[in-house]
Amino acid sequence: MSLAGKVCLVTGGSRGIGRGICLQLAKENACVIVNYSSNENMAAQVVSEIETMGQKAVMYKADVSDFDKVCKMVDDIVDKFGRIDVLVNNAGITRDALILRMKEEDWDKVIDINLKGIFNTSKACVKYMIKQKQGKIINISSVVGIYGNAGQVNYAASKAGIIGFTKSLAKELGSRGITVNAVAPGFIETDMTSSLLEKQEDMISKIPLKRFGSPQDVANLVAFLASEKADYITGQLIVVDGGMSL
Ligand code: NAD
């Protein structure tokens, strides 16, 4: 499953699932661009871990909801490395509240980063991928985008939107040799879920595999979807939740 020679951009790569994806792609010999929005130290740590493995990595600061900054990032990557092979849209946030308490800005912020963000990065990368006649786009959705969750109308709408986006873009780009897939994690142990997981230990009893997932569980699937082994898979949503949604 080697990704040798592949240039891969991972948004929100400084921690959690994004960090796990960056490290796994590097283990498969890819050159990794670790995108981050604020935490420079953590992004630098990921880069240094990858360099210790003997692989190439660079960090790039850009807020995925800012179209111009994203375009500049992707143009700079192509200037420096000559191509962009894999885009992993991982960056995401939550601003949870029941709808009566949810502020308009909580709605806007989540949609801007989680959904508009993948439009921005995909649009910026696709023009290069079309020229290359190959490319892989992998979008991190969520089981919440399929089943919904009280207190998360903004997040669930953004993650459901990612599924429609993925299927539509897969249809647009299939004839250009570009695949577009989505991954829907269940409960994965990261900073995003730390408070939730403490409160919801009983959730484990609802998971057939009897544990929460790890970033590595998601990263393994992403690395597969980024590889040539997944060349005939497009427009799919693959759930990584230990069977929780069965
Ligand atoms: P996390 O909060 O640990 O990491 C999110 C990353 O996105 C951080 O590095 C953050 O800095 C980055 N980010 C946030 N806003 C950004 C912006 N505007 N521009 C660029 N980067 C930005 O969360 P995580 O659990 O690792 O989640 C990663 C992805 O997986 C998210 O899209 C999340 O919705 C999704 N997800 C997580 C779980 C889970 O259980 N942890 C479940 C389903 C889906």
Q: Can you give me a brief rundown of this structure?
A:
This protein is an alpha/beta fold and 246 residues long. The protein has helices at 16-27, 40-52, 67-81, 104-132, 144-147, 153-173, 194-199, 215-226; strands at 7-10, 31-36, 57-61, 86-89, 135-140, 178-185, 237-240.
What does this molecule look like?
With 246 residues, the protein is α/β, with parallel strands linked by helices. The protein has one domain (7-240): Rossmann fold, CATH 3.40.50. The protein has eight helices and seven strands; from the N terminus they run βαβαβαβαβααβααβ. It has a seven-stranded parallel beta sheet, sandwiched between helices. Helix 1 crosses helix 8, helix 3 (67-81) runs parallel beside helix 4 and helix 4 packs parallel to helix 6 (153-173). The longest helix is centred in the middle third of the chain and has 29 residues, at 104-132. It is globular, with a radius of gyration of 17 Å. The protein binds nicotinamide-adenine-dinucleotide. Residues 11-12, 14-18, 35-37, 39, 63-65, 90-93, 113, 140, 142, 185, 187-188, 190-193 line the site of nicotinamide-adenine-dinucleotide.
Q: Which features would summarize this protein structure in a list?
A:
seven-stranded parallel β-sheet; binds nicotinamide-adenine-dinucleotide; 246 residues; 46% helix; Rossmann fold; 15% strand; 8 helices; alpha/beta; single chain
Strand content: 15-25%
CATH architecture name: 3-Layer(aba) Sandwich
**Helix residue percentage:** 40-55%
Averaged pLDDT: 96
Q: Assembly type of the shown chains?
A: single chain
| Count of alpha and pi helical runs | 8
Series of H and E elements: EHEHEHEHEHHEHHE
Bound molecules: nicotinamide-adenine-dinucleotide
- The low-pLDDT segments are none
Main CATH class: Alpha Beta
- What's the CATH topology label? Rossmann fold
CATH homologous superfamily identity: NAD(P)-binding Rossmann-like Domain
Instruction: State the secondary-structure class.
Output: alpha/beta
Number of strands: 7
